[in-house]
Amino acid sequence: MRHLFRLIAFFLFSVSFSLDAQQLITSYSVDQGLPQSTVTALYRDNAGYLWCGTGAGLGLYDGWEFHTPKSSGEKENPALKSTVRGIIPSTDQSTIWVGTESTLNQFDRYSYHILRSFDLVKQPGIGEVPIYANDTAVWAVCWSQGLYRVRIADGKATRLTTDGFRNQVGLAGDGTTIVFTDTAHQLTAYNVQTGILKKYRVPDALYSGEINCYKGVPGLPAIVLIGSTKGLWTVDITNGKMERFLLGDKMFADSTCDFRSFDFHPDGGWWFSIMDRGVFRYDPATRALRSCAWQQDGTYAGNLLDAPTSLVCDQYGVVWCGTDGAGLIKLLHSRVAFRSKFTDKLITDTCNWFTRSFYELSPGRYLVGSFRGGLTLVDHVKGEIKRVTSGPLWELTTPFFVTESGDGRLLVGTDRSVILLDTLKWESEEVDPGYEGESRYVGFVRLQSGQIIVYGNIGVKTVSLSPSPALSKPVGKQGNITSIIQLKDGRIVAATYYDGIQVMDEDLHVIHKYGYESEIGISTTSNIRGISEDASGGLWLGTESGLCLLGSDFRLKERFTVEDGLSDNTIYGLLPVNKITLILTTGHGVTLFNTADHSCRKLDGADGLPSGECNSGALLLARSGKVYIGTTAGFVIFNPGEPFTCYKNPAILVSYGNNEEEASGIIRESIVRDYGSGSIELNIWLTDFTFPQRVVFTRQLEGAEQAAITETGLRKLTYAALGSGFYSLLCSADVSGCGLTGMNKLLTIKIVPPFWMSGWFIGITSMAIVLLITLILFAVMRMNYQRKLRKLKMQQELDKVRQRISRDIHDEIGAGLTRIALSGELMSSKLSAGDVQHAKLKSIAGTARELSQSMKEVVWSVNPHYDSLDHMAAYFRSYVSGAAENADLRFRYVADENFPAEAVNPETRRNLLLILKETVSNSVKYSGATELRLEIHWAAGIFSMTISDNGKGFNLEGPSGVNSNGLRNIRQRAEACGCAVTISSSPGNGTNIQITGPIDKQ
Q1: In this model, does residue 139 exceed pLDDT 60?
Q2: pLDDT above 70: percentage of residues in the chain
């Protein structure tokens, strides 16, 4: 067994651990949703739940609240209300096995519904404790019955041992060997993979005790740690050797020590719960054991931890302890930002002070001034604390500052006087008695010249260092000085109470005085308690109205308040710890302010402050780089460069369920919802339950939100009225000290569109619409075609009628008129010229010929053969040419070479012909012209006809122009054709008439 112990020691001594660890304790009971305050079993899974078995059933904690599992069927499973005896996961951790006093139950880890239940022995009150499970079977022990293997498919149970089971069960370090003690007082080791069963005789010392827990030692597969009412033991399951394991403290070698449970912390430490003594941590590297019943603020929590039942150290470094009647206890160990105690002997002494000042004697040795408590020496090197001031001078005094005097002694400013303190003999001497009434020296400043000045409500005094330290009389009338700083250029800046800021030289002569409201721009009641100069020459002021930044001209540039992230607007202390970081102490915690980007990090009780009231203003930047901060409940140490201990990067988890029927537990991939089925509610949390309310989340629903949203303590998200489509939820978390988890896609939301918005419906509808439009277009085109066809047929019929009419007129009427004309001319030729009948016959013949000519024009206008534009132009030329020839006039014709063979509306042709006749007639009869000119053009659908002569012309504004019926008719007929008419004429310049416009086509 000696070699076994050396093996364990070799493994454990390789693990390092800092005893300078702090602790915060949080209690959960039925008031927070725990089913019962007696916790019988605990299991922390890697999916985000802490499974808590109690005497009244199972509860699941997600970091915010407790959930109660539900039965899958309508009838509630009695196991949900029974005492839980054991909780284990399946090998793939997709399900959880929970053993109660009545049944063995399998839970779906994501929805926490019961999947199946087995009653192995069918005897009420027989505890069934699961210990190992894989995909096909689960192994469990039953009280007084032994070990069983249960097939998951059908619940068939096989008994593997004949002797019953006593008390508790555990797994060896190999993860596959079940270890328990049977009713024959033998240690049973059963390997679930090989089926090998071994039994070992329990030593008499352990035999007489009650074994409470088993646990395999990490890294040592064959070693099992046993906790009992007779102390702690180890067993090697390969040979059955058992030996008491001592923790280095004689108290724990006592056989009356009742170990109830234990677990191994990620930092390498061992945690034990001991009945009536609480929870302890063992450091295997130093073999030191310490009680964990004391909290960060010095509060004793033994009343909570003295009745332990179970203990779990999760993967995030949080210790969970179940108790008998005190509920569930969460212990944060080595995970707080502030440190306040160093050994258990200093706990009650270093806490519960109203700390007002600090002084570092040497590394690890500090003088601490407290309210009406004088000075106390805290020696972290020797681990002791003692009061070093006594006597009348120190009775009920409050030290506000401590500094070197220059002769080896310390200069201490108090609320009564200034005292010299010899740290070798711890003797005191008053060097300044102060004044009648209350005299308070609140601070000092050591100038660049080495001179010391002290200040307070008596103004400013200088300290002479030789031959013996002494204080001068108050310099000037500076009044109540609250803070002083010497700038880089040597000037001294002093802030007064209500009376502005004074700038002085090194001889304390006032150079300038800046009024608070009139010049600086801050309230008279701001009460400046701290000043710091930045690299650009500006001043940071800690005031009662926030943090103020003054420019080099002492004008207010910016102000920062709680709205910008400060813990409180009233700042009691201001300390620069590096080039960009200011520590601000307030009545509601501490703020780390970044002067570069103006960001804030708030720290409070959750980070280890024994009190949020840091209103003493006591701050010290030690030579080690650590910062000492005074509070109303003692002092704490803060290391700005020390990261928050994070054992494992936490995961962000999402659960979903608008109601009990839809509850699905943890979501792994996606949510599918029908369009219009209501809002989607999501629960968000981290697997790390350290400070869930402090985590800063950044999230964005792609497809619905245009930008990312940042908020603290995110718990629930509600999305309403999401349109159909796909959405991705992205989220990252800023865990204090662990940094960002990264912007990852948590899940996809699919909103299934209704059938009228689905692809197939839209496709079919689109095809139907296209087909309908095609059919309508086809019908319209067919109707147009048929209408045109009917019109064409009608036009053809009309043309036939016109052609027949024109032919009949030409053949019958024309022939008749020609015969009349010929007969008249023949008969008149037989008569003498002076005969009256001769003249009448000549007139009849002329009239017949005129009617024949008019009849030809009618035939031309009616005959469809002459409807085209080229025929019209040819006819117009023929007509004008004949008229000019009859009148013995020259004729000129200008026209395009080829006119399109397009049909012209008969009415248009007739109106154009009448305009032509009227114009030619006027030129022949009245103009006295010798020449007629006709121009016809066709371009881009525009017809143009010009008739001109070289006659005498006329005045368009005269009676012959204004009252001319011929011109009026020409204009009216042109308007009927849709053409414009242009008439130009003047006496002696001939006449020109132009018709222009798009003529109607047939």
Answers
A1: yes
A2: 85
3-class SS string, 205-273: HHHCCCEEEEEECCCCCCEEEEEECCEEEEEECCCCEEEECCCCCHHHHCCCCCEEEEEECCCCCEEEE
Q: Give the span between the Cα atoms of 264 and 124, in whole angstroms.
A: 35
Task: Count Cβ atoms below 10 Å from residue 817 Cβ, excluding itself.
Answer: 20
Q: Find the largest Cα–Cα distance for the chain.
A: 182
SS3 54: strand
Q: What is the pLDDT of residue 347?
A: 56
Are residues 615 and 632 in contact, defined by beta-carbon separation less than 8 angstroms? yes
| Per-residue model confidence (pLDDT) at position 17 | 31
Q: In what order do the strands lie in the sheet with 278-283?
A: 259-264, 270-274, 278-283, 288-291
| Residue 579: closest CA among 542, 534, 626 | 534
What's the order of all strands across the beta sheet hosting 418-422?
399-404, 410-414, 418-422, 427-432
**pTM above threshold 0.85:** no
- Specify the pLDDT at position 52: 95
Asked if pLDDT for residue 638 goes beyond 80, the answer is yes
667 or 564, which is more confident?
A: 564
Structure tokens at 939: 């371009």
Q: Report whether 997 contacts 977 (CB < 8 A).
A: yes
Strands, E, within 427-491: which ranges? 427-432, 441-446, 452-456, 459-464, 470-471, 481-486
DSSP for 718-775 reads EE-SPPSEEEEEEEEEEETTTEE---EEEEEEEEEPPGGGSHHHHHHHHHHHHHHHHH
Lowest-pLDDT range, 179-193, 423-437, 852-866? 852-866
Structural domains of the chain in order of their starting residue, each with its CATH number: 652-753 (2.60.40.10), 754-866 (no CATH), 868-1002 (3.30.565.10)
Query: 518-555, pLDDT tens digit by residue?
Result: 999 998 888 899 999 998 889 999 999 999 999 999 99
**In sequence order, what are the beta bridge partners of 213?**
227
- Compare 781 and 760 and report the one with higher pLDDT: 781
d(CA 880, CA 896): 17
Q: What share of the chain is helix, strand, coil (3-state, %, to 5)?
A: 20, 40, 40
